[in-house]
Amino acid sequence: MAWVITSPPLLDRAEQRHPLTASDWTAKPDKLADWLHELDRKPGQLTEWLAQGNDRRLGRYYERLWQFALAHAPGVDLLGANLPLRTAAQTLGELDLLFRDDQGVHHLEVAVKYYLATGLPQLPDWLGPGGEDRLERKLSHFLGRQLPLSHTSEAQVLLKTLGIASIQSWFWMSGYLFYPPSGATPFPSCSTYHQRGLWQRFGELVPGDKRAWRLLPKHRWLAPAHRNDGHTLFDFSSEPHWPRLLVHFNEQGSEDRRLFWVPQSWPLPDNTSH
Known about the structure:
The chain is an alpha/beta fold.
């Protein structure tokens, strides 16, 4: 939860807005810290909330964390989440988050993403680990498909039933960008403060001490890892069939680096399935 709320965005765009921009937690971060410490001491309510979701995908987990935060944030009134918009013939999509604060009513689309810079002219510059998702495509989907949903006639009917006359649409996307050892040109409008890691192909020199790297399961990709969490020691001698996310621990047992270890042929089509 702390990482979700405090991690920087991947991009710096005018259409982007932090969900807690107008919350008292932003003006008084000590109050946010107190709430997070209280969650550490008594996590039952959050644990129960997360257990209610049947969809175990990382993106849905990220959304549910935001739903919980907005439902408890002072100065924010969560009006709805994952609200479907349908016509008689089809489902147009859904509104991730609908909430009110001192700056108005907001429709917010959220996502957590992990993209690798290929650095190759014949391929898209920023790809998801599976090779199919693209940062450029995701941004276009936000701007051209998801944000306009709240201004469709179907959405206006829904908003009218909630007593909402006007609405502002935004997105918020956090995660990591991974660079090859040779470096890469940052994505246009990339945030200066985005979180980053490295990626390397099987057979290349492993940075640092191999014994300090551990495999990070996908459900643990969000927050920084700790050595005492019991992560699996990674075997660098076998070529992975799919990119694997690894974390490196410093002497204190805290995560200090992330690395995607990918097949030699990544991102060719034979490596785009999990």
